Amino acid sequence: MSTRTLYRDALLCTLAGDAGWGLVDNAAMVAEGGTLRWVGAASELPAHLEIDEEYHLGGTLVTPGLVDCHTHLVYGGHRADEFELRLGGAGYADIAAAGGGILSTVRATRMASDERLFADARERAMAMLRGGVTTLEIKSGYGLDFAHEVRCLRVARRIGEVLPLTVRTTCLAAHALPPEYAGQADAYIDHVCSWLPRLAEQDLADAIDAFCEAIAFDTAQIERVFKAARGAGLPVKLHAEQLSCLGGAELAAAYGALSCDHLEYLDAAGVAAMAAGGSVAVLLPGAFYFLRETQLPPVRALREAGVPIALASDHNPGSSPMLSPTLVLNMGCTLFRLRPEEALRGMTVNAAQALGLHDRGRLAPGQRADFVAWPLNHPNELCYWIGQPGACRPFIAGAPWS
Ligand code: NIG
Ligand code: FE
Question: What is the model's pTM?
Fold first, then answer.
C-alpha cells in the first residue's frame, strides 16, 4: 500500500475552477502514491483518516507546481557578444543572416561533449526547480543533424531521469537551416521529416516544433514537417508570428497544434484559427524584453476568443537567457498586461495543457501532488516581486525537494 501523506497549515491557491485564485485558508491536502486525494479546509478533513506521514507548511502560500512549457535548455556556449552587438544597433535577423544567431549556438553545441551539454543543462534545470518549476519542457534545435539532435534529446531525457521534475522533450530540428544545407531548405526539410519516425520509435520526443519565419522556414515547409509528425503519431507546436505574420499559427491550429508560441504579430485570422483548433497561446515575455520588441501580442483578442494563454521562459542563449520562472510571471504582467491570476494560470494549468498534460496545474483530487510552498501571503506577490520572491519549497509527486 502506498504512503498516505497529510500536508497541513497552508494557504492554498488551488486554481481549481475556471476563474479566480481558488484560495483556501487554513487548508490541508492528502496525497497518496504521488496523487492528491483530498484538498480543502483543515476543519473539514474527514475524521479517522489514517495518515502515515505529515508535513506542516507553516501557514505558507501553496500553489500548483510551476510548468515551464517552452525552453531551449540544452546548448553549448552563450551569445553575450551578440547581445553587445545588438545593443550597438545590430538586428537579431541581421545577425542570423550573417551566420550568427542560432547557427553560432549550433556550432558551439556540436563541439560540446555530451557531458558538458548535460552538466550545463542540469544546472539550468536546477535553477528552474529552485524557482518553483516542477514540469519542464526542453527542445532540441541546436544540433540540426540527426546525430546531434538525438544527442540533445537524450541529454534532455537524462535531465528528467536525474532530477525529480518531469521533463517533456520536443524536437525542433526545423529551427534554422544548417550551413551544410545552405540554399537547400527543402532538402533539409526532407531529412527532418525522415527522422521523425525514428525519434518516435526511440521515444526521444513528446512533440515536434518548428520555427516559421523569414529567417527560418515557410508555411509550405512547416506543413511537410507537420504531416510527417502526424504520420509518426507525434503532436505539433510552432514558433509562430514572432517577427512577422506568415500565417504559421493558422496552419498549426489546423493540425491540432498543442500550442503556438511567441505570437507578437498574430492576426485576427490566427486568433480565430487557434480558438477553433484548441491550441494554447504561449507568450514569451523574456524574448520580447531581451530583443527589445515593441509589437505586443494580441492579448485582448486571445482572451475574447477564449484561447488559453500560457507563459514560458523560452530560456535560450540568443533571445531569452533567463532562468527565473517568477520573473516570467512578473514580465507577463508588466509587459503584456496579464492579470496576476492569468499569469499564474499561464505557468500552471494552461502551460500543462500546452504540453498535452491534464494531470497537473491545479490543486484538486486526482491531480499530481506537484506543488510549491512560498514564503508569501498572497499569490499576486508571485507576480509582484521582480524575480525570485524568497526561497520556495517545491514538492514533486508529494515529496519535498531540497
Ligand atoms: O524561441 N525564435 C526562435 N528560437 C528561439 C531563439 C533561438 C536563438 O536565438 O538561439 C526563440 O526565441
Ligand atoms: Fe523558443
Answer: 0.98
